[in-house]
Amino acid sequence: MHVKTFTFNPFMENTYVVYEEGKGVIIDPGCFDPAEESQLVSYIERESIHIEKILNTHGHIDHVLGNAFAMRQFNAPLYIGENDLDTLRSVEAYAPSYGFQKYTPSQPDFFLKEGDTVEVGSGQLEVLFVPGHAPGHIAFYNRKDGFLIGGDVLFHESIGRTDLPGGNYDTLIASIREKFFKLNDETLVYPGHGIPTTISHEKKYNPFCAIQ
Q1: What average pLDDT does the segment 56-73 reach?
Q2: Coiled coil where (predicted)?
């Protein structure tokens, strides 16, 4: 399974295209201006990927700015964690204060919960429920190829912020230790911001949640 990373919008958010056998999903489309939208579309067309789903790890503004565009462009349904609908809906109210007057809201077509799987070609992404940064935050784990699309839970030697509505520090640390740190140590973590890391590295060196 292939993972292509784009970094979009002023928040420097990581958008991922995950694909296999010509079929793919877009996770957290953060593209907002025409240049970013074109960059995403050009890659998908060049690689001849049929986008079947749009997935959100959570509903904060930087991860959903391109939801409506991606849904329309690829005629694909939107999936989000079952407990994060209010987070997504609230973006419309505060987007102008962040300078996004032209934000177009999006409505999920389906909801995901812990234990669900998302088919990508002949592969699967397992859904993990990992609240703390956002109340309905989910992550997507590919067991076969050993990677995790983690959203804003765990970063390279850092963690997601917990001072936003619905955030909780203790809950976030529990999500990391009880869900992420139970995965294989060599699991590659693709975060919502910044560079990839591994579970083993964060267990040893993360100042917030290291266990070794």
Answers
A1: 98
A2: none
